[in-house]
UniProtKB/TrEMBL annotation:
Keywords: Flavoprotein, Membrane, Oxidoreductase, Transmembrane, Transmembrane helix. The keyword Transmembrane helix applies. Residues 13-283 form the FAD/NAD(P)-binding domain. The keyword ATP-binding does not apply. It comes from the Bacteria. The chain crosses the membrane at residues 15-32. This is NAD(P)/FAD-dependent oxidoreductase. It catalyses: [thioredoxin]-dithiol + NADP(+) = [thioredoxin]-disulfide + NADPH + H(+).
């Protein structure tokens, strides 16, 4: 490099992680322990915030999500990871991340661990009960609703399978066909054989008594008693995060088996790629991804080291050996 040539500007961070849920913080923990310069940008609105407890995570089963994240944040800070409260507005293939308030963060590699936003049906009173007695995942909340009067909101074909799963927790389950779902004879026979009632009718609002779900009020005035309601919401992600990336029909980021997206330096993990990934699964996937990303950084470091040593990278070592022999 001649004196007239300026050295390229070094990235501000080795890795910029967008999203501070368990996936993002797990990746940050692994990379921080690898002594990488890491920043986590997080808006502070995790998908599971409405839920009272996390389940299925060994040693942390039943812990409130906010407490689990607080523990994880304290751990990653101990390894020098920067945690920045920010809403990310755009992610560029160049490695630049722009926040809603105009700040920019640059990284050699980017990890999107943003999760998703649940889009709930437009039913009066439903959002206020979300995460309490209006629920999504039977594996997360089924045990706590065991033997209660349960309902499943039929919004798509997969609601049939959800009703069958919910039936394993209670003998009193009704599938309410809120949307126009066509049941095959096989579906109808299977539901009947499991003792799941099927009722057609659009739900207009929830009936709540003493701060607890009591039933579903249909548009025609009928009330369907239930103590908990399961449903599968739609989900969405900010388009500013994905406009340069390949996404699937559900709007999730498409990755290969390693977590690499359609852009060379951008990776994705957690609910951003798989809406069904639970906390423990997202953490495990993020650990594996962080190892891959660190290997990529090491590959780049090696290339730079070889390039800076010139055409004969062994020259310095030979010279040092010769001086040692002379002494």
């Amino acid at each position: 490099m001649t004196s007239s040539e300026s050295a390229p500007t070094a990235p501000e961070y080795d890795v910029v992680i967008v999203g501070g849920g368990m996936a993002g913080l797990t990746a940050a923990l692994v990379l921080g322990r690898a002594r990488r310069r890491v920043v986590v940008l997080d808006a502070g609105t995790p998908r599971n915030a409405p839920a009272g407890h996390v389940h299925g995570f060994p040693t942390r089963d039943g812990m409130p999500p906010a407490e689990l994240l607080a523990l994880a944040r304290a751990e990653v800070r101990g390894y020098g990871v920067d945690l920045v409260e920010a809403t990310v507005a755009a992610v560029e293939p160049s490695g630049t991340v722009r926040t809603g308030d105009g700040r920019e963060f640059r990284g050699r590699q980017l990890i999107l661990a943003t999760g998703l936003r649940d889009v709930l049906p437009d039913i009066e009173g439903l959002r206020a009960r979300w995460g309490r007695d209006v629920l999504q995942c039977p594996y997360c909340h089924g045990y706590e609703t065991a033997d209660k009067v349960l309902a499943v909101l039929g919004t798509e074909e997969t609601s049939i399978q959800q009703a069958q799963l919910v039936r394993t927790f209670s003998a009193d389950v009704v599938l309410v066909l809120h949307a126009d779902i066509s049941l095959s004879d096989e579906d109808a026979n299977g539901l009947a054989a499991m003792g799941i009632r099927v009722l057609a009718g659009k739900v207009a609002e929830l009936s709540v008594e003493n701060d607890a779900l009591a039933g579903l009020v249909l548009a025609d005035g009928r009330t369907v008693p239930c103590e908990a309601l399961f449903l599968e919401p739609a989900a969405e992600m900010d388009k500013g995060l994905t406009r340069h990336l390949e996404v699937d029909d559900d709007g999730c980021i498409v990755t290969d088996g390693l977590g690499r997206t359609s852009q060379e330096r951008i990776w994705a993990v957690g609910n951003a790629t798989d809406p069904s990934a639970q906390v423990v699964a997202a953490a495990g996937d993020a650990y594996r991804l962080a190892v891959v990303v660190n290997a990529k950084l090491l590959e780049e470091d090696l290339g730079l080291a070889v390039a800076s040593a010139g055409e004969n990278p062994m020259a310095g070592m030979v010279e040092a050996a010769a001086l040692k022999e002379a002494v």
